[in-house]
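Final report, section 2: Outcomes. Of the targets proposed, Large ribosomal subunit protein uL22 is the one most frequently requested by collaborating groups, and we therefore present its record in full.
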Amino acid sequence: MGKAARPRTLADTEAKAVARNLRVSPQKLNLVAGLIRGKKVSAALADLQFSRKRIAGDVRKCLESAIANAENNHELDVDDLIVAEAHVGKGLVMKRFAARARGRASRIEKPFSHITIVVREVEEKA
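The predicted structure is given below as tokens.
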């Protein structure tokens, strides 16, 4: 019996991967996501490999997962893939306290964020 399968929300030429609870602020993660939006996946992987941002390794891992999903689950050609979307969402925020002068305390916020990467197969222009 069971439930009916949920219909696919993406087009047949698209695949996605999501990395959740990355320990970085959404603002900083969005800078790295902006680096790869609209690029071919080979160029995006190279950019992430040589980026000096700490979180670039986790974003690269997510992009590689999206590429693997496209190749293995949807039979898309890896050489024709581009990064169609890379959007960032807010996660939880851990609140911590730091001791300050004269017996006071101040709040430290440690944000988490999520990234969703969608790759799309496009035909080469002749």
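Residues 8 and 15 are 10 Å apart (CA to CA).
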